[in-house]
Structure formats: structure tokens, C-alpha cells
Amino acid sequence: MSEGHQLENANPVIFQRSGDRMVTASEEDEDVHDPIDDREIFLIRSINDPEHPLSLEELNVVELDRQVNDTESTARVEFTPTIPHCSMATLIGLSIKVKLLRSLPDRFKIDVHITPGTHASEEANKQLADKERVAAALENSSLLEVVNQCLS
Amino acid sequence: MRNPQRSDRGTMAAESPLLLSLVEEFVSGLQDSKAKDTATAVKDGQFTVLQLVEALGPSLTSSQPHTRARGVQLLSEVLQDNCGALTEREVELLLAFYENRLKDHYVITPPVLRGLLALTKSRKLPPGSAVSMLRSVFQDVHVQSLMLAERACVYNMLINLMESREDELKGLGADFVFGFVQSMDGERDPRNLLLAFQIARNILLRGYNMGKFTEELFEVTSCYFPIDFSPPPNDPHGITKEELTQALRAVLTGTPKFAKFLLPLIIEKLDSDVQSAKLDSLQTLAASVGQYEHRDLAEFLEGLWSSLRREVFQTSSEKIEAAGLAAVAALTSCLSRSVLNSDSEDSLSSFLGLVLRDCKHHLFEPDLKLVWPSAKLLQAACNASYRAAHSITSAVVPPLVEQYNSRTQCSHRRTLLEVAQRFIQSTASCQSVDHDESLFSAYKDSLCSLVFSALSESNSSLQITAASVLTSLAQQPGLLLDSDIELAVDHLTRLLLTDEDERVSVAVVECAGALAERHPAAFITKLIPTLKKEMLSDRRESSELHSHHAVRQRCLSVLAAVSVQASVVMEGAPILLDVLGSAHADPDRFSVDEVVRACLSLQRIAERVQDGEDTSRCFHDVIVPRLLSLALQAALQNDGSSGRRSPLVEEEVLSAMVPVISTTFSRLQTFAEQTASRAVSLFLDGDVSFLPDNSFPPRVQLLQQQQEESSWRQTQLVCLLMACVCSLPRSVALSQEERLLSELEELSCSCRHPFSYTSAAKCFAGLVNKKPQGPSLDSLIQGVIKRVSSELDRPSSPLRTQAFTLLIWVAKALLLRYHPLFSVLTDKLFTLLDDALLGPMAADSFSLLMSDSADVLNRGCHADVRIMYRQRFFSENSAKLVQGFNAAPQEKKANYLKALSNIVNKLPKQVQVSELPALLSLLLEALTCPDEGVQLSTLSCLQPVLINPPQVLVLQLEALVSRLLALIGSPAMKIRMASIRCVLTLSRFPAHEVLPFRSRVLRALAPPLDNRKRLVRREAVQARAEWFLLGSPGGR
């Protein structure tokens, strides 16, 4: 991503960032059990876009609308590339997946895929669903480097 | 090596055998130390330089170049120390000799240069010699084939001569510049570069004639741009990249003559991929245009603009964006400064034309990314000058207003409004005195109607933005008319009374405060009467009780915000007193919480109001007596038949009144002494004559504990006495102080009501702190110590807690002023750590000793607080504490650890770091102590230290990590969170130190990801993410 060449989408639409979650009294109460919820998974909003110095939330790649079920231990995340031919789609998906793998307890089954109909190719979905391929991708140090940059 | 001239020795030996032996040992014996001896001997007058030259004769004429070099070296080294004593004639001869020697064998050149350098420092340099010296150097020496030190010699010669012989050097004309260019061409050493840059800078600044060598001088320096230098590790010279960058920048930006070379270079370097090169280029650009005129810039404007625009539009770092914007501002202000000729085109307007062409249209796409970079670029240009601001605002503001009106989506409108606000703010700096008309006066009406329409929308973020636009408009001097302000007040009042959103009300309160500071009249006539009506109206019957509470809260905070000007305070503060009065008269009407808030608002007013006779009178004659009177009425009242007692007897309310009164006494001093003595006689003698609503019984005895059940109501009023007498400046003497002190001591030692005896102890301590040094103070303290000790030494006494409270407060008062008797009290405190009942309390009390107390004994109430009292306490007592810990029985050790962590927690960071080595083992011990309070306070004092870890901590990493990881499983969520936070900080330690712990930490952080508390999970997620990045490609 050198500065010299033109970005794929130089002037994308920007969305507002939501504020930090307010701490409630029940969250401070030792005796209450707080379930893992949608808002908590939304920590993926702060992942950086690989191209712009903007977060996925500001580009509306991810929205606070996904299904997390604490009791069934499942998390489903849909994301929307800014343009249908975005070449970064797989990379963004991988970053989301890695962020969730690092942040959720082991028991969760994590499903990350592109919002249906928003991208030209759905190949990325297959790659993201395939455990082996995700693991292999993370063995690749140059790929891991880009993912880590998105996450830091 | 044998000296072939040795036979000549006999002829001169008669003059000075010492000299000859020195020369001999230096030249032939190669003993370098003899040079120093010779120099000292010359300095002491044992022989002259002339004699030295004569003695050197044989060496200097030797056929061996190395012998000649040794001879010259001795002479040069002697001259270095002795050139001040030379006569003009001697200097002339020596110069002629040295210049001649430059043509000699190359091994002789280094000592010759050193000798010449020494001579350049001589004040006796004959006229014309500088020129001839430099001509010889430039002609006979190829500088870049010399060694580092000799090159430095040449540069230093130039620097010395430029200081002393500027006129002569200028006489050399362009030859001087040419000679210098040749000398430095190819220089590689950073130390020498700093010297060379200094010379180049002098050439430019002092107006040397560069002739046709301008470009050569630019080339020979600019080839280092941008500086790329990383000093070797352990560099003894300490030259930084920053230093070189600044020195080079000073050269490159030193003259407008470089403009035509520098600007293309900058455009080229801005294309670089290296961030630091971009940043350097942008900063150099901003620095250079300070001296340029529009002519220098004209042909490069287009190129510069497109590079700058690209840097801001596609920026990847805030630093570069900021530097780019600064460069735009610098360019604009340079162009605005230039005087126009009739035939030249207006380059400012053509530049602004470019900026507007590329940025303006982005402003009207408020949902796209480039709206903000474009706005920032335009605003940077706006900021630069009145002219630029004028042409940009006239091009941008009308279409902005139009766009706002044509858009329907709230988020779009808000962005447009925010952009407009930035424009208003960015011009604030260029509204100079000679333009008394605001830039926005032409658009004032349309902007006001924009703001008012936005305030009437239902979207809260739009309202918030509109409020801040209103604030910015009000800050433009002379822009808003009275009618505009009145309209604005109407809008703000409406929002205050009807809008439920908390963020909106915060924005409204802030805006009202800003407006009231400049335009008080409209607030006095419109807002304050409405607030009064709203707050004192009785709506208990109505259904909207809940929302009415919220409205009243907002009214209270806005009342505090607008009361800055004295005229507003006079109207606003009495309303708050009315609220307190009606709360007392009818306890159901206001909740305790609301009464506390009313006090808080009064406190804010007291903190911000200007000290003047009017305001001081208002506070001392009206507000304080009224507060005291209300509190006294409540204290004397019996619980009515309704069973509800007045909120003014609640501890919370009284505690909220304390800061109102103490702020009044510490800030508004005109009538303070008088009011204080009235308060003292109220409490000592029951003199109620100065209180309003005077229907009190004749003899109230507030400081005497009565037998009745309800006497606490009266004794607790002592906190108000404390507020009155403990906040006075130390210079004010208090009447009846002795009697007051003895009654306070009695009350604090014998009263059973905790709030009463604590307040009495605090009041006593506050007075002791300010009492002048002397025997009367000493005997007072001795008396207290005796009384307290006798109480504490009787384990069965029911009044031990009281005695302990007085002990700790008096100890604090003495600690703050470094009173010598303090150590007696500390020793008492340390022995109490072993006490079965008071031990934990004593451990906690160290935190009270070390922290600032809010209502008494702080600098705000003029207490005698010495600097660094905490460090002093720590250094005097830490050893005792460690000793006590080691000697204490197992079950008492926790008290010592708690006391220690309470002390260390409050120490300034630098002290913590320096003291940590001695205490680390104890703190690590504290982490394993089962007491949760100890764990928590130790963690919180460790965490800041971990941010910049001292070496000793790194050595104990294993112990630290395993203890922290163990605490992650603690049953208390606060401890889990604090330990995870420490683990997070550990990830920023030097990577090679913590990398071995990576997998262990990641494993330990997995269970808290599934913790039942969300806040714990949040910490764990953060810490785990950082540890994953550690040692991973692209991470850290």
C-alpha cells in the first residue's frame, strides 16, 4: 500500500463511530452474571481497514447486528466490503476471524462471512469457513503481518 | 630515530637546558606528554615562544618529514594554550611560517592546521592575515582527503574567523563561498556536518556574497536532505538525527535565493515512501516560506499544492497531516504578506483558487471521507491571514448554508454544521485589531437562523453541534446583537426545560455559560426568572414528577454555569438559597440529592466568581449567614408530626455546605475576618445576632454534648465551624482561639457521634496547622498527645476510636508543616499497627496521611503545606515499617503491608521508581497476602511503575508474572481486573525480556475471556490482544 499509487476507493462513505459502552451498575455488581452479547462482539469495530486509516466501523464494513448466543456458544458475523470488487475482502474477513478467535472463549463456534449479495465473489466465504485454510494462512508470516497491523 | 642535527645542540644549550630536553624528548623521544609540560612552562614564563622556535630550529629544518612534523606539532600544541600572549609581530611571523609549511610534505599538514586554528583564536591577528591564511588553505589543502580531526580543524578555523574577521572574509567575495563549498564537498561525519552546516548558515545569515556559487552551496548541503542518520548504540558524541535535521533545515531555509532549488527538491521528496522524509520535507517547507516572497513561490505553487493535497487526502498518520496543514497555512500566510505590484498577478488568489477548486466540492458530500480533509485544508488556509480568511469564507459559507437548507438527513446536516463551526473557530486567530468587523458579519443572519433551526430539531447530536456553533459565534467580538442573544436564550431555556437527553443538556449548559460571560444582561432578564419559577414551583401533584426532578437538576447546573459575572451571581445565588430554604420548610419538596446539588452549584459559583467588594459582601453577609441559619434551624427543630426530618440535618447535605463556606472564606477575603469571628462567637457563646430569620432560643450551646438523644444534630454543625475558621489565610488572627481549641479537643475526645467527633478533630487539626511556631503550640500538642495516649493505652476504653481519630488528624496537620513533634505521633501510629482492634484502622489511616484532604488541610484553604512532605515521610519511616513487618507476628503482617502500599501508592512516580528496589520484595510479598485490600492497593501502586519498569523489576520478572497470573483467578472482580491490567502493561516491557512468558500468559488469559463479569472480560480481551502481537510479525 505505498502512498504513490491510487487507492481502489479514494473517497469512501464515512459512518459515525458509536461511543464506548457505558458501565452499568449491574456490571459492577459481583453477583450478577453478564452474558456475552452482541455489543461485546462488536469490538471488531476497531479493526483497522487495510487501506484507509479508518476503522471497519467508520467504513460500515461491520455493523452492530450480528447474532451471538452465549448459551449455545455461537457467534455469527457478517461484513460488507465497501465496493463489490474489493480485493481486500478476504483479508478483512480473516482479520475479523482472528480478532474473534483471540477474544472469545474456546467454546465458541465462530462464523464470519460476507453479507450475501454485497461482493462479486463469494469465494472468501469458503476460505473463511475452512479451519485448515485459516490456520494455514496464519502460518504465512507476511499474511500474519498484515492481519496484525489491522488488529493493532 | 636519531636526530642528525644533534651536534648543533651545544650552541643553544646555554639558554635553557630544560627547554632543549623537552624538545628532544618530544621530537625524538616521541613522548606526547612533554607537549603539555612545554606549554605550561611557556605559560609560566620559563621561556618564550620565540625561544621555543629557536630550540625547535633543528627539528623544523630536518630532512626527515616526520621529524619536521613532530617539531611543528610541538609548536602547534604550545600555541593552543598560549596564543593569547603573542604579540602581533609574532603572530605575523608564525602565520607566514605555517602558511609556508602547508606546501610541505603531507604528514606535516595536520599539525600545521592545528597551529593555524590556534592562531585564529588570537586577538592580535594582523589585518589581511585572515585572507591570506584562507587563500593558502583553500589552495594547498584538499580538505576531504584529510582525517576527521583535521577536517574539523579547518571548519573551526572558518568559524573562528567568521566571528572575528567578518569584513576581511567578505572582501574575499565569492571565493570564500567557493572555497568552503570545495572543503565540505563529500563530508560524511555527523560531527563535522554540524560544523559545516553552522558555517553555511552563517554565510547565508550574515550576508556573504555567494556570487555565482549559490547553486553550488545549495547542492553541497541539500544532498544530505532529508537527513537519514541513526546514531550507533552507546554513541559518546550524543549527536541526534533531530540535531542534524534542525541544523540542515536552518541552512536550506536560510535564504530566498535557494527557493528555486529547494521547492522542486521538496516536491520530489514528498513523493518518498519514507514517512520521516515526508515529515521533514513538510516541516522544511513550512519553515522556508517564512522568508519567501510570492515571486519565489509563484512557479511552484501548483506542484506544491498537489503534493500537499495528496498528503492530507491520503494521509496515513496524524503527524503528517498536521505538518501538511501547517505547510498550507505557512504558504498562505507568505502569499498574503507579499506586496503586490501592478503588473504581477495576485498569487494569493490564484493559490486559494487551487485550494477551493480541489476542496470546496468535497464539503458538499458530507457523508464521504474527503469532507474532513478538505475542510481542514481550507481552514488551514483560513487561519493564515485575514485576506485569505475573507476570500475563503465568502466562497464557502454561503453555499454551506444553502447545502444545509437543502439537505434533509440529520447526519448530513450535522456534518455541515460542524464544518461551519470549524470555519468560525479557525478564523478566531486572524481577527486582528484593524478589522473591527467580524468576517462573518455578512453571514451572521443566515448562520443564526441555521443555528436556531438546528436547535429546534429533535435530533440530539444536531442540537449539540448547534450549541457549540452558537458558542463560537458568541465568541466573535461584536458579531451577535442583543436581539440575537435574546433569541438564543429563549432557545436554550426551551431545551433546558424540555429536552431529556443528558448530552444535550450538558452542551446547553456549557453554551449558556459561555454566552453569559459576554452577554449577562439577557440572562438576568430572561433566563434567571424562568429558572426561579421552575425550581420553586410545586409540582408534587402532577404526574410528571420524575421528569420534573431532571428539569430541576438541569436548572441547578445551568444556574451555576451562567453565574460568572457579578451581576448574574447577585441574581442567581439567592435562588439557590431559596431552594435550600424551601427544602427545610417542607422536607417532602426536594430530595436530599437535590439539596446536595444546590450546594454544589453554590460551590461552583463561589469557585468562579471574581473577588470584588460586591461579590464578597454578597457571600459573607447573605449566603454564609443564611446557610448557617438554615442549618441551625434544622438542628434545633424536633422531628415534626409528619415524621420527615429536614434534609438539612443530613450528613451529606452538611458535607456539601462545607465547601461552599470554605471556598468563600479562602477566596473572597474582604469580609472574611469579621464573618469568622461571628461564627466563632456563635459556636462558643451562642451569639445568634448576625443570623437572619432570628427566632432562635437565647442560649444555644453547639459545642457541648448534651445528654439528650438528639444532641448530635447540634454537635455535627461543628463541620460548618471548620469551614469558616480553617480556610482563612494564615495572616488572619482568630478571636478566642485558645478557648475554641480546648472545646474542640473536648468534643472530639468525648462525643459519641462519628461525624461530630471527626469534624471536631479536623477543625482542631486545621487550626493547629496554622498556629504560629512556639511554646504555646508545643504545649498544646503535648497536651493532646498525653490525653490521646492515656485513652489509647486503656484497651477497655469506649473512647479509643475518638482518640485515634484525633491522633491521626493532628499527625497530618503536623506532617504537612514539618513540625518536629510529628515523630512522636508517628511512633504511636506504628505501635498501633500491632493493636488487635485498631490495627487495620491504623493501616488504612496511612492513606489519609498521605493524600490531600478535600475540605481541610489543603493548599486551597491556605494550610501550611510544605513541598514533598510525602517523600519526607516515606524516607523517614519506610525503614521502621520494614523493620516492624519483619518483627510482627504472622497475623499482624497484613497491617504492615497495607500501610506500606497505602504510602507507596501516594508517592510521586519518580520517587516510587527510585525507591522500588528496596521495597520490591515486600511488595511481591504483599501480592501473596490473602487480604484483598492489600492485594488491590499493591496492584494499583505497581501498575504505574510497570509502565516504565526499572531494571530491578525486570530481574524479578518470574516472581512478578507468576503472582500476577495467580491473582487473575481472584474471587474479587476488582482484583481480577487490576491484575489483568498489570499483565497488559507487562506486554510493553522490552520484548526480549517478556517473550519467554508469552505462551504462559496467553494460556492464563484464556479463562478470564469467559469470566462471568463483562468488565473482567474486557480487560482480558485487551491484554490478550497485546500479548498476541508481542513477537509476532507486524506486531511488536
Automatic annotation (TrEMBL), chain A:
Keyword Repressor tagged: no
- What range(s) does the MIP18 family-like domain occupy? 44-112
- One GO biological process from the UniProt record? protein maturation
Listed under GO cellular component are:
cytosolic [4Fe-4S] assembly targeting complex
- Annotated region (Disordered), positions in chain: 1-31
Query: Which keywords are on file for this protein?
Result: Chromosome partition
Under the subunit heading, UniProt states: Component of the CIA complex. Component of the MMXD complex, which includes CIAO1, ERCC2, CIAO2B, MMS19 and SLC25A5. Interacts with CIAO1, ERCC2 and MMS19; the interactions are direct. Interacts with KIF4A; the interaction facilitates the transfer of Fe-S clusters to KIF4A to ensure proper localization of KIF4A to the mitotic machinery. Interacts with CCDC117; the interaction is direct.
User: What family name appears in the similarity comment?
Assistant: Belongs to the MIP18 family.
- Biological role stated in the UniProt entry: Component of the cytosolic iron-sulfur protein assembly (CIA) complex, a multiprotein complex that mediates the incorporation of iron-sulfur cluster into extramitochondrial Fe/S proteins. As a CIA complex component and in collaboration with CIAO1 and MMS19, binds to and facilitates the assembly of most cytosolic-nuclear Fe/S proteins. As part of the mitotic spindle-associated MMXD complex it plays a role in chromosome segregation, probably by facilitating iron-sulfur cluster assembly into ERCC2/XPD.
Name this polypeptide is given: Cytosolic iron-sulfur assembly component 2B
Organism of origin: Xiphophorus couchianus (Monterrey platyfish)
